[in-house]
Amino acid sequence: MSNFTMLIHGGAGTILKEDMTPALEHAYLEGLQMALSVSYAVLEQGGTAINAVKAALVLLEDNVLFNAGRGAVFTKKGVQEMDAAIMDGSDLSAGAVAGVRNVRNPIELATEVMRNSNHVFLSGKGANDFAIKQGIKLEPDEYFFSQFRYDQWKAIRDSDNYSLDHTNHHLEELMRDKKFGTIGAVACDSNGNVAAATSTGGMTNKKYGRIGDSPMIGAGTYANNATCAISCTGHGEIFIRSVAAYDVSCLMEYKGLSLREAMDKVVNEKLVKMQGEGGMIGVDAKGNAAMIFNSAGMYRGLKSSNGLQEVSIYK
Ligand code: ASP
Predict the structure, then answer these.
(1) Neighbours of 254 (CB within 10 A)
(2) Spatial separation of the C-alpha atoms in residues 97 and 117, rounded to whole Å
(3) Is 167 annotated in the active site?
(4) Count of domains in the chain?
(5) Cα 93 to Cα 82, 89, 108, 111, 188, distances in angstroms
(6) CA of 214 to the centre of ligand 1 (A)
(7) Structure confidence by residue, pLDDT tens digits, 136-190
(8) Considering 5, 111, 167, 182, which one is annotated as catalytic?
(9) Exposure string (b/e) for 299-314, b if CB count within 10 Å is 16 or more?
(10) How far is the CA of 306 from the centre of ligand 1 (A)?
(11) Residue 230 maps to a domain
(12) Global pTM?
């Protein structure tokens, strides 16, 4: 039996204490704490890493504060199009969906793709048809509505600007002032199996069916017992181009780096060079864990059987 470890994130970016009210900070920490406790309990009761990451994401998707499931950002057309992926490091099975609408928990649909389709990645209307066929829970548009996301979108909907989660800025301002509200989880269970999951509404005012890194296996999400499980958050386009999650795995597999060394290299060297702001959480099959980001903050939490426990926001 090995150490078991649970990690979650709720997005990274320019998250500063001075921009936060005590009530909002409390609500974020409470949301993270709840998802962490429930998913850690899955591991404690001998459950699998894959079930633990799914349990964490369902709770965070149901929490309107985070940009995934309920509370997802609005697209150019004023709807929510959501992306999610899940991967099991024990057999490299994976499932992902992109641009799905009205699905209460996109991570449930991604898991269904992994388990009960002959495919890995479904998108748009086809993915929604599959959700209906498999009896995945749907919700009306009103369920996903949140006033603050709506206001963010209203401020830029008549422009060609797009914005990452909370920001309403022009593109060059985006490079300086970004917050990313994507959610993710990684886990190592008591049998030494690892898993990763990520879910997001993507970017405010996104159009043309834009898809970020979150649902792309290898970019925003990856898990392999031989190396690590990784879930990313940040400027999706850059994470896709740098194949960020798989790059951590490769640095461990081919260069013999430790989990922390590999994550540090990708987040603080390679992504920084490409102006890729954001971060990632990671765990290996021995239960070693790291949460690394190059932005001002990352909503994050960690709990492990060797006594480590942390829920935090700022650097
Ligand atoms: N990576 C996500 C995307 O580009 C955004 C985020 O992390 O919040 O869709």
Answers:
(1) 9
(2) 12
(3) no
(4) 1
(5) 21, 7, 15, 10, 16
(6) 6
(7) 999 999 999 988 888 888 888 887 776 656 343 444 343 334 567 899 999 999 9
(8) 182
(9) bbbbbbbeeeeebebe
(10) 31
(11) yes
(12) 0.95
